Amino acid sequence: MAKKFKTNALRILDNHKIKYEIQEVGYDENVDLIDKIKAKATYPLANHLKTIVCQSEHGYLVACISIDREIDLKALAKVSRNKKVELINLKDLFAITGYLRGGCSPVGLKKPFPVYFDDAVASMETILVSAGKRGYQMAVGKDEIVGLLNGTVAKIARD
To answer: Sorting pLDDT into bands at 50, 70 and 90, what band is 1?
Structure first.
């Protein structure tokens, strides 16, 4: 059973009356997240998304893709109408988002940034993203979270 805690992400879901379920996957910088999730997953691996923060000439943006896929920066640039998109330096993650590596959620960022979900989520009812704390994910309805974040669903990842 997951410990009781509240993060900005969970408070926002509560305020919008969006139902969620907490999944504890644990956190260890020396263990691959995919391996940890495989060991504890109650949802298919593809439903677990990683949050990737990027920078473009128009500012920061967030990409959410399945943990077993790779971000396609050119596709993200095209869909976000940018010439170029780059990953931010991880040392800047907390200052930009208010979250630590391994606990960055697309919900509850310091400032609202455009959020892009890979089109692989289109066929999913439930997706899992970080709950805003290392080692914890929140399972939430895909339509609810995409709607809450005014997210865009587009092909932004590759196998």
So the answer is: very low
What's the rounded Cα separation, in Å, for the pair 7 and 51? Answer: 16
**Cα separation of 159 and 156, whole Å?**
11
Q: Judge contact between 122 and 43, C-beta under 8 A.
A: no
Q: What is the count of structural domains for the chain?
A: 1
Asked if 66 contacts 118 with a C-beta cutoff of 8 angstroms, the reply is yes
Task: Kindly state whether residue 4 falls inside one of the protein's structural domains.
Answer: no
Domain that holds residue 74: 23-158
Query: For tokens 């910088």, what's the residue?
Result: 29
CB 124 within 8 A of CB 139: no
In a domain, 12, yes or no: no
The per-residue pLDDT for range 94-149, each reduced to its tens digit, is 999 999 988 999 999 999 999 999 999 999 999 999 999 988 999 999 999 999 99
Tell me whether residue 6 is in a domain. no
Contact 98/8 with Cβ under 8 angstroms?
yes
Give the closest residue to 51 by CA, choosing from 39, 42, 60, 59: 60
Comparing CA positions, the residue from 16, 22, 4 lying closest to residue 146 is 16
Tell me, what CATH number does 149's domain have? Answer: 3.90.960.10
Evaluate whether residue 13 is within a structural domain: no
